[in-house]
Amino acid sequence: MPATGDGRASAAAARLGAADAADTAHRAGTGTNTPTTAAAGRPAAGRPVAQRAKAAAETGAPRSARPDGAREPAPIPHPRTTPSERGEPSDEAPYRLLVVADAGSGDVSLIESLVAESGARVELHRAGGIEEAAALLAPVPMVARRTRQRPVDFNCVLLDLAAPAHGTQGGPAAEHFPSDGLDGLRELRRRAPHVALVVLTDAAGAELGAAAVAAGAQDFLVKRETDGPLLARALRYAVERKRADESQRRLVEAELRGQENARLQRHLLPTPLLDGAGLAFTRRYRPGRRRALLGGDFYDAVRTDDGTVHVVIGDVCGHGPDEAALGVALRIAWRTLVFAGLTGQELLTTLQHVLEHERRSDEIFATLCMLVLVPGAETVGADPADGTAVGVTAADGAAGTLPVETVRLFLAGHPAPLLLGPDGPPRLLPADQAGPALGLLPCDDGLAAWPAVELELRPGWSLLLYTDGLVEGRVGAGSRRLGQDGLIELIADHHATGLTRGRLVDSALAEVEELNGGALTDDVAVLLLERNPVPALMG
């Protein structure tokens, strides 16, 4: 505001200077840890900008008027960031600074005058030594928060590297840290690792300040070479750098945890044991949880010593890590029971007991499909006259003949597999004797039973096992689901083009996701088991 020429500005400035001097004199005897916004040392800067502006407004003086005629320093602008958990200073809250310095050295008065010169709103707190500062920075335990006063949440610590260990309150003689002069810094970092630190050195200790930054401080200042604006910028930079360091640390920790979880989940997926089975085995697994490698679906396939191949696929209801862990437990239990010689009703009954003991609530259940493939003794060949299949004995088996195999199917509330043959469209295996899902009904009193359906598999067969996530995908933008009928048509189209093994499964999954308009929300597991005259392949 331009001067009016009537003397009001100069009179107001005189009154402001008198008020500053009175306020400074009033605080001359302030205690060690009493918060204040400025201190004596420079009469023209006795109070922060906001207080001097308020006094000037009350007396009619412009904000730029000062007793010495100098221009009022502009306040340091605050970055437009969201306040952090440590109370990032804003236009409403003062900047909380803890000064750790020897009270008898005069450095505290120097810092207070620099803060006043900076024009920033700073709430000063003092500590005469490292132990006193560590006590102020230490978090209050939960059990003591009701009885103790809430501690000050400091934005930054300004540490004089010459500060003693205990200050004047620790004993008759202040104990200074020996060694390289950085022991006090290391102690504060150990006691308060999440607080931004700026160190203060003398002119001869510039190299020590650089060493302090290398040891963990965010910045350093040299005494007698620092003015108010430089101090304000250094404090602001220290807080922002500390926040960036903390964000980077949390990001690295999250990445490491993600890598560890990925390795753990990857090793929890099964390795089928089908050596000598003469089968091509393709599996695809896609959990519905974002960034997860493991869901509630599970599968496994093993070949026992008698040549029997056992295959299972299942689905634990729900989504999340608990369901994924339960699926792993069921899969491991299933493999253990198979190698222990159990099968059929006995195996499924025992597996339900495992589920009942491992689940977190009685509402959790699991669907399951189990195949037991028994190699047959009879072989079939092709009649050279009409090409029809004719029976021959194993003793008469020659090159080009394949056995007729028997498969026993057990369903526990699970979708029936698809049978793909060399001729004719895919068809569902019968599911009229399916039993309830595991965990729905008690099995000790006979309410839950899972009878076997025995089928013959002719040469050239393929079996597609899947979980319900594959058939519950949507078709278009409406509410229509793909369903088993839609899956049959889709697989038939892809199979008719000559696709087999992994290419057949991948192309089918791609079309299901395309019909759904994106990735499927439910866990999906797909197994394709094919009899192959060449050595077994895994896909």
The biggest beta sheet, please? Answer: 6 strands, mixed
The best one-word shape is: elongated
Let me know the average pLDDT: 76
Query: What is the gyration radius calculated from CA atoms?
Result: 39 Å
Tally of DSSP helical segments:
11
C-alpha termini separation: 81 Å
- Elements, N to C (H/E): HHEHEHEHEHEHEEEHHEEEEEEEEEHHEE
Helix content: 25-40%
Written account of the structure:
The chain has helices at residues 8-26, 49-59, 107-118, 130-137, 183-191, 206-214, 228-268, 321-339, 344-358, 483-496, 501-516; strands spanning 95-100, 122-127, 156-160, 196-201, 219-222, 279-286, 297-303, 309-316, 366-374, 379-382, 389-392, 402-403, 405-412, 418-420, 427-428, 453-457, 462-466, 524-531, 537-538. With 539 residues, the protein is an alpha/beta fold. The strands form four sheets. It has a six-stranded mixed beta sheet with strand order 15-14-17-18-6-19, covered by helices on one side. Strand 3 (156-160), helix 5 (183-191) and strand 4 form a beta-alpha-beta unit. The protein starts with 7 loop residues before the first helix and ends with a strand. This is Fused response regulator/phosphatase. Residues 97-238 form the Response regulatory domain. Pfam families: SpoIIE. Residues 1-90 are annotated as: Disordered.
